Amino acid sequence: DAGVIQSPRHEVTEMGQEVTLRCKPISGHDYLFWYRQTMMRGLELLIYFNNNVPIDDSGMPEDRFSAKMPNASFSTLKIQPSEPRDSAVYFCASRVQGGGTEAFFGQGTRLTVV
Amino acid sequence: RKEVEQDPGPFNVPEGATVAFNCTYSNSASQSFFWYRQDCRKEPKLLMSVYSSGNEDGRFTAQLNRASQYISLLIRDSKLSDSATYLCVVKGGSQGNLIFGKGTKLSVKP
């Protein structure tokens, strides 16, 4: 398996533009997580899905952020409109059901909003 | 109180040293615990799970103290290649989510 695949790897956009980040989890994994990482705040959980259903989106910073998982092999995180403070590395991770199972991370999308 | 707290470091140690990291968590219902490692500009990767009885993997030993809600990681005989950020991770109660600490940075010097 190729692992968790995220695209794009890097994104530079202007303030006010819409940004869409994409993730393909590992086949057969039941959970999908979106995290944001900054120096100040570390890794923050934004939202996670179980069997394509959003379970907890309490970490989504505000209404400008939305996430979807239309099927088991694809998820998107959208920011509209983007702001400079959204600049961060966004990671997608997936794992199988079970308490002690490992989460596998994609390589991340480095977002810069200017 | 943050859900998972770690000393951010950095820990600067010479090769061959023994170093210990600690982590505390706030949710007493947490059921699973892990240490992840993150290299600079890379994604986090699982280093080891943490079991109630404690567990060892080569030079790495993890301990869990449920009563004190505290997790530790001990690295013996540090190598240059151990330089990274070590993330304490807790799976909350009946929830499926994984909560990460902010990480402890380790730098091993020759």
N/C terminus separation of chain A = 36 Å
Helix percent of chain A reads under 10%
**Low-pLDDT residue intervals, each spanning 5 or more residues of chain A:** none
Percent of residues in β-strands of chain B: over 45%
How would the global form of chain B be characterised?
globular
Oligomer: heterodimer
Computed structural class of chain A: mainly beta
Mean pLDDT of chain A: 94
Q: Indicate the overall shape of chain A.
A: globular
Major β-sheet of chain A, in short?
7 strands, mixed
Low-confidence stretches of chain B: none
Topology overview:
The complex is a heterodimer of chains A (about 110) and B (about 110).
Chain A: E1 5-7, E2 10-13, E3 19-24, E4 31-38, E5 42-50, E6 53-56, E7 65-71, E8 74-79, E9 88-95, E10 104-105, E11 109-113
Parallel strand pairs in A: 2-11
Antiparallel strand pairs in A: 1-3, 3-8, 4-5, 4-9, 5-6, 7-8, 9-10, 9-11
Chain B: E1 4-6, E2 11-14, E3 19-25, E4 32-38, E5 45-50, E6 55-57, E7 60-65, E8 70-75, E9 84-91, E10 98-100, E11 104-109
Parallel strand pairs in B: 2-11
Antiparallel strand pairs in B: 1-3, 3-8, 4-5, 4-9, 6-7, 7-8, 9-10, 9-11
Description:
The complex is a heterodimer of chains A (114) and B (110). Chain A has 114 residues and is mostly beta strands. In chain A, the strands form two sheets. In chain A, strands 2, 4, 5, 6, 9, 10 and 11 form a seven-stranded mixed sheet that branches. A four-stranded antiparallel sheet of chain A has the order 1-3-8-7, with no helix packed on it. In chain A, a hairpin with a 2-residue loop joins strand 5 and strand 6. The radius of gyration of chain A is 13 Å and the shape is globular. The termini of chain A are far apart. Chain B is mainly β and 110 residues long. Chain B is built from no helices and eleven strands. In chain B, the strands form two sheets. In chain B, strands 2, 4, 5, 9, 10 and 11 form a six-stranded mixed sheet that branches. At the A-B interface, strand 4 and strand 5 of A face strand 5 and strand 10 of B.
